[in-house]
Write a structure and sequence with these properties.
single chain; about 150 residues; alpha+beta; 2 domains; 5 strands; globular
């Protein structure tokens, strides 16, 4: 678990972009990432890996259509896939939103935090890449049991 608190949302967003870039370079495996903002209107969550409803429906429909074609039932397969894809977007995986909102309330007004579940990370490189953005860094090793509870 990586958590970094910043004085503003823009800096937190740039730091999250750095983490995403490191994931693209295979420096780390980013399981979940979010910017939590304590704004004027309350706590806002900006999920990095949230699956949009349209993506789930389209992806599910495509898979269902392919399976349906293989079974000789393309329309039924597509309909089942669409329903499954829509259901998949309703499941919250990663860091629970309730916990993120509680953390956001604890931040000072206007402050933001990047929280990420990171696996197989080169922590030296991650630290070096995030250093220019400052912030208060907290890195914690998460046991397998805790990680399983977070990703259910």
């Amino acid at each position: 678990m990586l958590a970094v608190v910043y004085d503003d949302t823009a800096t937190a967003g740039r730091a999250l972009a750095v983490l995403s870039g490191l994931a693209d370079e295979h420096v780390l495996a980013l399981k979940d990432a979010v910017v939590v903002v304590h704004g004027e209107d309350g706590v806002e969550l900006h999920q990095e890996h949230a699956l949009a409803a349209g993506e789930g429906v389209v992806g599910g429909g495509t898979v269902g259509l392919l399976v349906g074609l293989a079974l000789g039932l393309p329309i039924a397969g597509a309909l089942i896939g669409l329903a499954g894809g829509a259901g998949a977007t309703a499941i919250d995986t990663g860091i629970p939103d309730d916990d993120l909102r509680r953390i956001g309330k604890a931040l000072g007004p206007g402050r933001a935090a990047v929280l990420a579940l990171v696996a197989d990370g080169d922590w030296t490189r991650i630290g070096a890449e995030l250093e220019p953005y400052g912030g208060d860094v907290l890195v914690s090793e998460v046991t397998g049991e805790v990680a399983a509870a977070l990703t259910r």
